[in-house]
Amino acid sequence: MKAPTIKNDILVMLIFSAVILSMPIWLEPLGASYPDLLQKFAIFGIFAVGYNILFGLTGYLSFGHAAFLGVGSYTAVWSFKLLTMNIFPAIIFSVLLSGLFALLIGFITLRRSGIYFSILTLAFAQMFYNLAYSVLTPITNGETGLQLARTDPRVIDRLFSEAGEGLPSTDFFGLAMSGYSGFYVCAIILIVAFFISQRIFHSPFGIKLRAIKSNQTRMKYTGYSTRPYLLTAFVISGMYAGLAGGLMAATDPLAGAERMQWTASGEVVLMTILGGVGTLIGPMLGVGIIKYFENIFSALNEQGLHQAYSFMPDWLSNILVPMTSPFVGEGWHLTLGALFVFIVVFLPGGIMEGIDMIKKLFSKKSSEPDFEPIEKKTTPESGK
Amino acid sequence: MSDKKNSAGWSRRDIMKAAGAFSAAGTMPMFFSRGAWAAESFRNDPGNSATVKLGFNVPQTGAYADEGADELRAFKLAVKHLNGEGDGGLMNTMKPLSLKGNGILGKKVTYVTGDTQTKSDAARASAKRMIEKDGVLMFSGGSSSGVAIAVQSLAQEMGVIFMAGLTHSNDTTGKDKRRYGFRHFFNAKMSGAALGPVLKKEMGTERAAYHLTADYTWGWTQEESIKETTEGLGWKTVKTVRTPVGAGDFSQYITPILNSGADTLILNHYGKDMINSLTQAIQFGLKDKNVNGKTFEIIVPLYSRLMAQGAGKNLRGILGTTNWNWALKDAGSQAFVKSFGSEYGFPPSQAAHTCYVQTLLYANACEMAGTFYPPEVIKQLEGFKFDGMGNGKTEYRAEDHQCFKDVLVVRGNENPTSQFDLLEIVQEVPRAQVEYDAKIFGGELGPYKV
């Protein structure tokens, strides 16, 4: 591993920003360039990047992060209902409130580590889900989900204008949150979130978190109390989840309890592992793949397959369509599962490991001596 | 994909043509303003494209997947018939009919499908994909009222018409009604009104009812409506218990019933939930019990043949209501059963029927309006009276976009003659008996133009 340099970081940031902002263009041939999916990429990107701060750095596997996503969503919708349709206060409140909840849950769950921690977080998430689903229906509106109504007070908006006909829509100081403008707002927030995550990764704080992952006992012996660091990481990732939840409500003002179900927590774990745990870019790749499967693959039907194979001779496409159709459409989970198994078995480091392998392959080919990796082990890394 | 969206909207020439067409057709002065409206650009305007696209958003996974699969079959059949393929189905019996069997307004109909997963979030994401990526003019589907209400409000935000499939909650056309949402299916209020007299006749006026209710908008409103009916008859309500959707195992909810003193169980469940809860209730011996000197009875207010198939002989003798049944003898029902049967080899369910009818109604309204411009299409659907679609004379009430028609009270067939002959029609309750004032649920439709 190369030691990070400031120059490197800036380069990564620039490339990342360019790739994210140009998504509407390069996703076009993949059929994924429409506002809703682009927004989802950015929002779940924030979620996964934040989750990676906890899971990737400290190795604490939380199965309850969807709870913070849900808290963020409900907070944002309530802000739309009570205060204003501007997303700015909604997002601030989402982040703060989910941070508060993360502090509370983290304080309790971080007393344990490993599988016990995972189970505790799972239990909390399930509790939150059930609260939202049935107990707190006056606040969450249960299964139907919290929705806007024309008669909501919206105190701040009412100071400036009368209620219009029909439901108002969300905006960021006049910029509509639906469509492409909504995506760009999310994308810029994602870039900022990524930047913060990068700074955390390469800060002394980040190094301490990594130390917790590699050997917590040893770290304790060197005189560090690990729990404050863990709690901080937990709260930060909880706030990221809240931010993502708030943005989800901002692009689509509806909050449902299923957002907090344990499957939603599992999804972010899958995203992170698929992309590469503990890498900066990995979780983003995971998000891209899972959301692409969920939205595009799941919508393919036989009609679509016939079109996709139309360049082949008829007899071949007639064989291929029945063979592949169980894997698309409603069978998209099957394909995703197979892919996941493949990645975990052959590339435990996720897609990022695959990319590294390819990189190495190429750097080997470019006439570098074969013993280079061995030599690298013996030289101190900090030299660069 | 061949049809590119015309983002610039109508060209000057189109506007002139449309305005000309409208003023020629219109004799009333109102038509002039309509023509001017029709010229405005709207989302997913097909423009000069030779095809139009419809979106079918159904549950392909989860507790309501069986219904979703049948809905999808019906949609595909409807598209075929609209394009003039197959035997035409209900287009032969629908009155009044403006459809010509050449697509909609001369444009061939194509479709995209999506999976709602019976979750509001997933359903909205799927609907958004259809609207933003695929450019659908109308989307339809359903099976969960929670989902229907969530995507209906999306329809209003996006300005794309939603023709609800199977959704039975009062809220869909009650407090959560929307200008861009339409429901052909009946609702819990109508189920209650239709069931009342039959229950009185068969079970008397002194019973104690115990409700198990699916914990979401549909369950809540059905519980409310049925309670209103039974309490009106003089029944007591012992207890109402909410159960999560997709629970799978209901035994923990059924054991308390045995000692509750109730002599009637009302199952406000649907789909696989209803199959499971009913089967378990029978296994626990509820039907063989004798409470307060009466035999224990079970009522399933919302029935479907697909559920009957799943529940098998457990359903025998149990009362409920349904929107439509394939055993109906009118020309419309027979035509639909025939063309669905010859396509797929088995009779359609009520979910399939309502989705098929909704697709045809939308297409017909576009033909009547002479445009795809949603506000015009909506105006054609509002107050539209039609016949020959399997439910007798039907009206789309303008105030809440709810269809009013006869409701069927059915009973699980004691001696089925085939694997599909599971429901016996007890009574066709006339429309007048199930009608109610549109104002009782509150809510407002919202604007035509968004």
Structure, explained:
The complex is a heterodimer of chains A (384) and B (450). With 384 residues, chain A is mainly alpha-helical. Chain A is 69% helix and 2% strand. Chain B has two domains: 254 residues, Rossmann fold (3-Layer(aba) Sandwich); 134 residues, Response regulator (Rossmann fold). Helix content of chain B is 39%, strand content 18%. In chain B, α9 packs parallel to α10 and α12 crosses α13. Classes of the chains: A mainly alpha (384), B alpha/beta (450). Chains A and B meet through α3 of A and β2, α4 and α5 of B.
Q: Concise description?
A:
The complex is a heterodimer of chains A (384) and B (450). Chain A has 384 residues and is mainly alpha-helical.
CATH topology of the largest domain in chain B: Rossmann fold
State the strand order across the main sheet of chain B: 7-6-8-11-12-16-17
Overall number of strands of chain B: 17
Q: Helical segment tally of chain A?
A: 19
Q: Determine the fraction of residues in helical runs of chain A and give it as a percent range.
A: 55-70%
Main sheet record of chain A: 2 strands, antiparallel
Number of domains of chain A: 2
List low-confidence stretches of chain A.
368-384
Strand order of the largest sheet of chain A: 1-4
Number of DSSP E strands of chain A: 4
Name the helix and strand elements of chain A from N-terminus to C-terminus, one letter apiece.
HHHHHHHEHEEHHHHEHHHHHHH
What can be said about the biggest beta sheet of chain B? 7 strands, mixed
The rough form of chain A would be described as: globular
Shape of chain B: globular
> Could you tell me the strand content of chain B as a percent range?
15-25%
- Radius of gyration of chain B (CA) equals 22 Å
The CATH architecture assignment of the largest domain in chain B turns out to be 3-Layer(aba) Sandwich
Q: Which class of secondary structure composition applies to the elements of chain A?
A: mainly alpha
Count, helices of chain B: 14
Name the structural class of chain B. Answer: alpha/beta
Q: What is the CATH top level name of the largest domain in chain B?
A: Alpha Beta
